[in-house]
Amino acid sequence: MMPGTPNIDLHTHSTASDGHLTPAQLVHTASDAGVGVLSLTDHDTMDGIEAAQVAANEKALTLIPGVEISVTWSKRTLHIVGLGVDPAEPALANGLEQLQEIRRERAQQIGKKLENLGVANAHTRTEQAANGGQITRTHFARLLIEDNKCQTMQQCFKRYLRPGKPGYAGAEWAGLHTAIEWIQAAGGVAVLAHPLAYGMTAAWRSRMLKAFTEAGGDALEVHCGNSKPADVQLSAKAASEFNLLGSVGSDFHSPEQRWLKLGRTLKLPEAIAPVWSHPRLQSYIKPT
Ligand code: AMP
Ligand code: MN
Ligand code: MN
Ligand code: MN
């Protein structure tokens, strides 16, 4: 990291989607943990940004308005993070509304499946838990734990919520080009999130990176969550090969994830140009 660069975390979640903390709690927790520049990147919504901005103004913390967009590419789901996006820009705002409708329909389908598997009132209870935020599979996983159907989140996904499992319902999310267009039209920078988390072979990963780059994508998450040094190296190599900037983000969801703390220094290898050097993000790093 460049000397003088503050502690940066460009991928986090709040109760606007599947995070445990409200946007204000997230900002306070991040600030207390030493984060200087934070992006809130909820799944397919920017509803938490306003409250996060109010909280950030009270703290010495710079908020980069963000979003994590669900994308369907080659029958697979990818996550594209938009950084520095204006939530009022119509193409993005309309696009997110479409995805929210898809989420509502899918939640009903998943709810029905889980009800058939003996989880009483799965859909209604999940709606209550989400409390107006976007419903994700994380919410259903929490319900399965509550009903003792499984013990850990990992187990719930493995047994019930992954493709091919009895509680899974697929969805046709945004197209890759479309998501990148929404982000860039809204003044932002498009980042391919957690490239090693899609269960892809190296060949598929290469295809994904090529498609993302050709679609005009800007950056690759090089250090995400608790990436191991070898993962960072592998992603850095991919960023170099495809001439992408590098991003860093914890993908923080909850203080219950004891292995994933806010405020941990997320390092980019020096050879990788950081996404915050992008002209569109300069104003956040060096306030004018
Ligand atoms: P959705 O976008 O509704 O399909 O939900 C995806 C979310 O589920 C991700 O953002 C993660 O927060 C969570 N998730 C996916 N796989 C796992 C897993 N194996 N363990 C815990 N959480 C997971
Ligand atoms: Mn999530
Ligand atoms: Mn993700
Ligand atoms: Mn995420």
Note the gap between the termini.
Answer: 21 Å
Please state the overall shape, judged from the principal axes of the Cα atoms: globular
What is the number of helices? 10
Q: Any idea what the radius of gyration is?
A: 18 Å
Q: Please count the beta strands (DSSP E, at least 2 residues each).
A: 7
Class from secondary-structure proportions: alpha/beta
Written description of the protein model:
The protein is 40% helix and 14% strand. It has helices at residues 23-32, 49-58, 90-116, 122-130, 137-146, 153-161, 176-185, 202-214, 229-241, 282-285, and strands spanning 8-9, 37-40, 62-73, 76-83, 189-192, 219-224, 245-249. A seven-stranded mixed beta sheet has the order 1-2-3-4-5-6-7. A hairpin with a 2-residue loop joins β3 (62-73) and β4. The longest helix is centred in the middle third of the chain and has 27 residues, at 90-116. It is globular, with a radius of gyration of 18 Å. Residues 18, 43, 70, 136-138, 153-154, 157, 253 line the site of adenosine monophosphate (AMP). Adenosine monophosphate is lined by residues 18, 43, 70, 136-138, 153-154, 157, 253.
